[in-house]
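Render Acetyl esterase/lipase in 3D.
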Amino acid sequence: MKTRFFLLALSLLLLATGRSLAQPVLPLYTGTIPNSIAGNVQETSTTLANGGIRISNVVQPTLTVFVPAPGTANGTSVIVCPGGGYTRLSIDSEGYEVAKRLNEMGVTAFVLKYRLPNDESQPDKAIAPLLDAQQALRLVRQQAAKYRLNPERIGLMGFSAGGHLAASAGTQFARPVGANPGPVSVRPAFLVLMYGVISFNDSLQHPGSRQNLLGKSPSAALVRQYSNELQVTAQTPPTFLVHAQDDKTVSVQNSIVFYQACLRHNVPAEMHLYPKGGHGFGLNNKTTKDDWTERLKNWLDANGWLAQ
C-alpha cells in the first residue's frame, strides 16, 4: 500500500514538473530478427526545428511502453504505429504524444518502432512492416499478465502509412506473414485509423507509400493484397476512422472506402470527417475546436474497452 501511494505521489510530482519516468523499451524479437539481412544499414534519428523526431532505417524494431498512472489502468492496451510514408517514422507527434493521451484514458500504450521497407536489409521488404506489427501483437499478448492487461482488449492504431500498416494487420490476421508464425493470435480487438493510407489502387494510392512498400512496378495481385478495403471481412475488428476532407496527401476517399467495406460486411465502424485539417495533424486539428481524442474516448467507452 505504501509503495502504491509513493508511486502515485511521484507520478503527480513528475506531472506537475513536466517530467516523466524513462519509458521501458522492449525489443520486438529475441535472437535473430526474421526477414533481415546483416549489412551496413544504420538507424538514423533527426530532430526537427520544432522539436519533432523522425526515425529512418530501422533495423532493431522495438515497443516503447507507456503505462497509465497507478490505479487508473483499465486493462485495455493500444499499439501505436506512427506514419511517415513507409520511409520514416513521425515517432513523437504520431507516437509518444498519442501514447500519453491514451494513458489519460487509462489505456496502456505501446509505440511501435517498426522496420521500414528496405531492399538492403530485408529479403522481402513488402512484409517487413506487417511482420513487425503482427509480432507486436504477439508480444503484448504474451506480456499481458506483466502489465495487467486483458489479452482480448489489445487494439491497433495507425497514422497515415502507419494506418495502412494497422489496416493490413486488421484484415490479414488469418494468414500471418513470415515462417512458422506460431499459435498466438495476431488479431487486434479494434482498429483506430487516422488519415490512413488504405488503398493502393491507382486512383486512391499515396504513391510514395505504395512504391516504398511494393516497389515501382508491383503486380496486380500484390496491389490488391495491400488494398485493405478489398480485404475487409465479417471478422475485421471494429474500426474508428478520422480524416480531413482537404487532405492533399492521402485522399479522404481512403477512409471512406474502408468505412463502406465495413458497412458491407457488418463490421461496426465509426468515422469522423473534418472539412479542414490537411494531413498529419496528430493530436490537434487546429481548424476545429472538436477534439477527436474525445470522440475516440467515447467510442472506446461505448464498446466497454475503458471499463476496469
